[in-house]
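Please think about what follows:
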Amino acid sequence: IYCLDDTGDIYVFITSGNPCKMLTVWKSSGLDCVSSCLTNYEYLVDATPYSEADLDNLQVAVREDQSAKFLLVQAGGQVNQNILMAGCEDGSLVMFNRRFGRIDFRIQGHETAVAHIVSNTRHSRVVSAGHDHVIRIWRMYPFAEEALAPMFSYYTVTTPKNLITGLDRV
């Protein structure tokens, strides 16, 4: 679990027990980004439910979850991944290296602070809303070095406090 506090610091918790345990804190001062909101972009190349009998015949990587078991199938060298993203006080959108707690990618998205960010992995989209009264739709390329490309901008009369995508249109 990644928790964002009021100062922009990100607390990383492990949930293998209850209460959960804090692993580390990513200080905003060390990240060169004061985060204002977080989202997780879960990119699944393939997640096919399997039975125990399938394991006898297949030689593939297996991820064990407590709630379900999935066969992870590689497609063109690409594998499933989770990308932690943040909107920042300076208007930028960033992607974190979750292993090392550093920023791997940054793009300027808004003229002012990002108010909210949400992802739609089914259509490879990220939506951000800024205090500049702009909602931006981004195309996500999870395996590219330049991972986000702007698609559309919508101007609003107010700053959106929260975003939800629906009906698979975004």
Summary: Residues 28-31 form the longest helix (4 residues). The radius of gyration is 18 Å. The helical segments are 28-31. The first strand starts at residue 2 and ends at 4.
